[in-house]
Write a structure and sequence with these properties.
Layout (H helix, E strand, L loop, with lengths): L3 E5 L4 H13 L4 E4 L15 H16 L3 E10 L6 E2 L12 H15 L8 E11 L5 E12 L15 E3 L12 H7 L1 H22 L9
Parallel strand pairs: 1-2, 1-3
Antiparallel strand pairs: 3-4, 3-5, 5-6, 6-7
């Protein structure tokens, strides 16, 4: 298979590692280039995950001259009317770390006052986009349903992993799972496996002398 170089837009080392692992497991046949340190961070000003992912991918492709891969992820909690959503990475403030974001989430749920199972219902979504400097694009969506645990559990993962319990699992949080177990169920794993399939189609078509991408998913 033809190997194509893509630059990863994420400046989060945990996220970059997960993306690389999922794409490797999926047999995408890509050479991933780390985000250059001299490329400024992109302001995530969009009102949707798709817009934010596209902003990042477009900026990195323009800055490096390479096709870029970016994603944006949001956690939606029913009792909080869909928050933190697109603000998940900045829920406790623009410079908040993972622990602070999780602490705010649990505090907001406690303030919401309704602690039945339905109130803790939540879902993760990831939009992943591969973007070429000439504007061609492949996009994919991955989602997982679950609930928010009453307290943090597990030492693995990052972000909200210590409090997210996927419905399709065995009652453990993502942070209690091995990377392979998490990738098999997670929103990011699903999004990037779908993206890998789309990229394989594009690369095969390019090798055959045609181009089916045209921004399709």
């Amino acid at each position: 298979m033809t190997v194509t170089r893509f630059v990863l837009a994420s400046a989060n080392p945990d996220k970059a590692r997960e993306i690389a692992e999922v794409l490797e497991y999926a047999g995408a046949g890509l050479e991933l280039v780390p985000r250059p340190e001299d490329v400024p961070l992109v302001e995530e000003t969009g009102d949707s995950l798709e817009v934010n992912a596209r902003l990042k991918a477009t900026a990195l492709a323009a800055a490096t001259g390479l096709p870029a891969i970016a994603d944006d992820t949001g956690l939606e909690v029913d009792a909080l009317d869909g928050a933190p959503g697109v603000h998940s990475a900045r829920y406790a403030g623009p410079d908040a770390n993972d622990d602070e974001n999780v602490a705010r989430l649990l505090a907001e749920l406690e303030r919401a006052g309704n602690d039945d199972g339905a109130a803790r219902r939540a879902r993760f979504a990831t939009v992943a986009i591969a973007r070429w400097p000439d504007g061609r694009e492949v996009a994919a969506l991955g989602e997982v349903e679950g609930r928010i645990a009453e307290h943090t559990r597990g030492a693995g993962g990052f972000g909200y992993d210590p409090v997210f319990v996927p419905d399709e699992g065995d009652g453990r949080t993502f942070a209690e799972m091995s990377p392979t177990e998490k990738h098999g169920l997670s929103h990011r794993g699903r999004a990037f496996r779908t993206l890998a399939q789309g990229l394989q189609i594009v690369m095969l078509a390019e090798a055959a002398g045609s181009d089916p991408s045209n921004g399709e998913r």
